[in-house]
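Example record

One chain of 217 residues, shown exactly as stored in the release files.
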Amino acid sequence: MAESSSYLTATADAYDAVADLYADLARDSLDRLPLDRAMVAVFAELVQAAGPRTVAEAGCGPGYMTAHLRNLGLDAFGIDLSPALIDIARKDHPDLRFEVGSMGAFDVADGELGGLLSWYSVIHIPPPELPPYFAEFRRVLAPGGYLLLGFFESEGGPVLQFDHKVTPAYRWPIDDLADLARKEEFVEVARMLREPLEDERFRRGHLLMRRQAAAMC
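Predicted C-alpha cells for this chain:
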C-alpha cells in the first residue's frame, strides 16, 4: 500500500512535538486498566496457541505496549510514524526492535505475522482512508493470525471527529470497525466495551479478530 497522504506527516509531526510528555504519561497507563490488560492477555494467549510467529504493534509510540507483549511471552516488535517516539522506545527498551514506519505499509512478507496489535492507532486515520489499512493487516497476518484493535467508541453515534490532545482523531462505532475487518476476511472472536474512568472522556472499544484460515481443497 503506497502512502503519501498529508495526514501521515501531520500525525508524525504532532507526536514528535510532544514525544517526551506523551511517553511520560503513557508508560504506566496499563497499571490501572485491568479490563484492557485482560483483553491483551487473551490476544497473547491465542497467538501463542496458534504457533511461534512474530507479532507487530502498529503505532507503538514509546513502546510500552510492545514491551508488555514481550512480557506476555510474544516475539514482538513495534513501528510508529514518529521518529521521536521511536527514539524513546529504543532507549526505554533496548532489547526490542522498533522501526519508523506506517502500519499501512509494513516491511514484512505476506503472512509473516502471527498477531497484530493496533492500540489506539487507527483513531488518527480519516475514515475514508481506513479500509486499505485493514487490507494491509490481512496481507501481513498469517491465515489464522489475530488482530486486536483498541479505540475510542462512539457510544451509539456515527463516526465522530474529536479534539484529541495531540492531533485530530475519530471515535468509531464498534460495529462499523468490525464490518471493515469482516470485508478483509477477518472473523470476530470477541469484543469489549469499557465505560470511561473518572478522568477519561469516552468509552473504550476493543475488537479481537482472526484472519480466516485458507479454505481446504
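Notes: The helical segments are 6-17, 19-26, 34-50, 64-71, 83-92, 131-140, 174-182.
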